[in-house]
Design goal:
Elements (H helix, E strand, L loop, with lengths): L1 H16 L4 E5 L6 H13 L2 E5 L2 H10 L4 H4 L7 E5 L3 H14 L6 E6 L2 E3 L1 H9 L3 H17 L1 H31 L1
Antiparallel strand pairs: 1-3, 1-4, 2-3, 4-5
């Protein structure tokens, strides 16, 4: 029965982790129930899930999914996997934010980002990056910045053109008045 249960657990974990762009691993040892609940609530607000897994089972699942060996080696001691829609980015942001209040709890073991294993320091640096929506907005504003001045530039050209036409007309009228007398 234990073998069948492990098979079912592996299948469910593979469903959860398949297509995962990245995740963060933490050591959850030392968290009491209140702290664990607080961590889970903070992660949920950030759209992040936390799954506590047996190391041997996790290594097997991630090996079957083709993850790098360096990442599989992080599964030592009590381990929880944090992942969100955008993988390690939202997980690292939510965790680092929570750890500001709880300094010595839930140490970061490392993570996975776009198929590459990360150290705990790299996970913390990843958390400092702006999220995808902010980056897109910044790029879009950079692209649209030159266009924002276009209407006023066109208006300026048209007013100068109108002024030049008016001046030319006035000069021609003065020329006709002076030449006809």
């Amino acid at each position: 029965m234990a073998k069948q249960l492990k098979g079912i657990m592996c299948t469910e974990l593979q469903k959860s982790f398949r297509g995962l762009d990245g995740c963060v691993l933490i050591n959850h040892q030392g968290l009491n129930s209140e702290q664990t609940q607080d961590l889970r609530a903070a992660l949920t607000r950030g759209g992040v899930e936390m799954t506590v897994v047996h190391n041997r089972l996790a290594r097997r699942v991630f090996k079957d999914l083709g993850m790098v060996q360096a990442f599989q080696d992080l599964f030592r001691g009590p381990t929880a996997v944090l992942y969100g829609e955008d993988g390690a980015i939202s997980a690292s942001k939510s965790l680092v934010q929570w750890r500001k209040k709880h300094k010595d709890l839930a140490p970061i073991k490392g993570g996975l980002f776009q198929g590459r294993a990360m150290s705990s320091a790299e996970v913390e640096r990843l958390a400092a990056l702006p999220d995808v929506a902010t980056l897109r907005a910044s790029c879009l504003s950079l692209l649209l910045a030159p266009l924002s001045g276009l209407p006023s530039a066109i208006q300026g050209l048209l007013s100068h053109f109108a002024g030049a036409v008016k001046a030319r007309r006035e000069s021609l009228e003065k020329g006709q008045e002076g030449g006809g007398a």
